[in-house]
Design a protein that fits this description.
The chain is of the alpha/beta class. Helix content is about 35%, strand content about 25%. α4 packs parallel to α5 and α5 runs parallel beside α10. The chain binds NADPH dihydro-nicotinamide-adenine-dinucleotide phosphate and L-homoserine.
Length: about 425
């Protein structure tokens, strides 16, 4: 017999996402009940400040100062963890909930990227379910697609743009010709940013998400430490404009693929063709591209952050729990996930290099020599008109390995005609 008793929620965290969840539970109570076959009710809530005006009435719910105490309450079935942070109260509350037999729904990618393997194992041992749709790509139901709809495929590659803040900043820089700082503030106002914004602009948040997708896609233990990470802080308006002139746009792109040398996971700014679906992504939008042996390529696009889209994903998990759906956190039991050998930048690519070059005879020859010594071959090169003695030079290389580019960068740094730091950005022909 299906359970028709209300599914009782305790919500820890009433910020952007938590408030969004409260709103959906209220606004769609009847619809949710019809879909789940039982009512979904909020019993208790917890946050730091009880008195904060959150724009929703929370007086009707029990208040708990301590999210761990809330997680242990006998009158809740599900802890909805929306506080954030890889450790501290979020981890303690999730562990307490699992230990006391509660299901958990979380949007917390940092927590899962660092402790997902242990938490999934603990949930399975306790006979509870741990779900995290909202943790990856906001409103896009990518976890559901990978664990359910694509379960019949061997996944060969997962890639995408998975951080709304970075995509917002990069696309708005190009559209408005404003600098990084002004646009960072705009993203902040939209509720996209993590509590520590360095997680966003440093590529760490997107790296967390990629490591979670890689685990599901390849049946491997989450290995965030093996993600090669690079953020967007080095990207200047000049790079964005140069890329645009060459028919590219700069995206913080994540790629996970199983290669002959092991699992490659990288999250870094890349030039992608402006006309490609990834190149056309605007604002806080995310895109995840999945390749499977039977299905071919799937492209999923949607809002990657913000109150409504993220709460939508949380509620998808909650409704699944209300329906009694029991799927392992990473698509197979935690004990079956295997460790993957990390493969660093296994697949070669062309690179965009921007440097400032002293304008004197033989300077370009010295650059060509430094690149040649590292085994890097030049495809195209252009020097812009300039007023002073330093010329901006753009080089597009033929395909080469990351190790060769690193060696070339070292060589260029030792070449006196090259002034300042050379910028190197991978070109991904998606
Ligand atoms: N914002 C977004 O677009 C997305 C966010 N996420 C993830 O969702 C989670 C929540 O994000 P978001 O809503 O933006 O975060 P906010 O910073 O807006 O909200 C965090 C909430 O957690 C509460 N909180 C923080 N620390 C504690 C604590 N020690 N004890 C009790 N409550 C605490 C805060 O309380 P108080 O309000 O009183 O300060 C606040 O209500 C994070 O894991 C984030 O990574 C995932 C996808 C998208
Ligand atoms: N800070 C994240 C929120 C969504 O995970 C982003 O900007 O994408």
């Amino acid at each position: 017999m299906p359970d028709t008793n209300p599914l009782r929620l305790g919500i820890a965290g009433l910020g952007t996402v938590g408030v969004g969840v409260v709103k959906i539970v209220r606004k769609h109570a009847k619809l949710l009940e019809a879909r789940a076959g039982r009512p979904i009710e909020i019993i208790a809530v917890s946050a730091r400040s009880r008195d904060k005006d959150r724009g929703v009435d929370i007086a009707r719910y029990d208040w708990e100062d301590d999210p761990v105490a809330m997680a242990r309450r006998d009158d809740i079935d599900v802890l909805v963890e929306l506080m954030g942070g890889s450790d501290g109260p979020a981890k303690a509350a999730v562990e307490a909930a699992i230990a006391s037999g509660k299901h958990v729904v979380t949007a917390n990618k940092a927590l899962l990227a660092h402790h997902g393997q242990d938490l999934a194992a603990a949930a399975e041992k306790a006979g509870t379910v741990l779900r995290f749709e909202a943790a990856v790509a906001g409103g896009i139901p990518v976890i559901k697609a990978l664990t359910e709809g694509l379960a019949g495929n061997e996944i060969t590659k997962v890639m995408g743009v998975m951080n709304g803040t970075c995509n917002y900043i990069l696309t708005r820089m190009e559209a408005t010709h404003q600098g990084y700082n002004a646009l960072f503030e705009e993203a902040h106002k939209l509720g996209f940013l993590e509590a520590d914004p360095q997680l966003d602009v440093g590529g760490i948040d997107a790296g967390h998400k990629l490591s979670l997708l890689a685990s599901i896609a390849f049946g491997t233990q989450v290995n965030f430490d093996a993600v090669e990470l690079e953020g967007i802080e080095q990207i200047s308006l000049r790079d964005i404009e140069e890329a645009a002139e060459m028919g590219y746009r700069i995206k913080l792109l994540g790629v996970a693929q199983m290669t002959g040398r092991g699992l490659e996971q990288r999250m870094s700014p890349c030039l992608v063709p402006a006309a490609s679906p990834l190149g056309q992504l605007e604002g806080g939008t995310n895109m995840v591209v999945i390749e499977g042996d039977s299905v071919g390529q799937i492209v999923m696009r949607g809002a990657g952050a913000g109150e409504g889209p993220t709460a939508s994903a949380v509620m998808g998990d909650v409704v699944d729990l209300a329906r009694g759906l029991d799927i392992s956190t990473f698509g197979m039991p935690a004990s079956r996930l295997v460790p993957a050998k990390p493969a660093t930048a296994a697949v070669p690519a062309a690179y965009y290099l921007r440097m400032e070059l002293e304008d004197k005879p033989g300077a370009l020859a010295k650059v060509a020599a430094a690149l040649g010594e590292a085994g890097v071959s030049i495809d195209r090169m252009r020097q812009h008109g300039h007023q002073n003695t330093v010329a901006p030079v753009i080089v597009v290389t033929h395909r080469c390995s990351r190790a060769q580019i690193d060696a070339a960068m070292e060589g260029l740094a030792k070449t006196p005609v090259v002034k300042g730091e050379t910028v190197a950005i991978r070109i991904e022909e998606v």
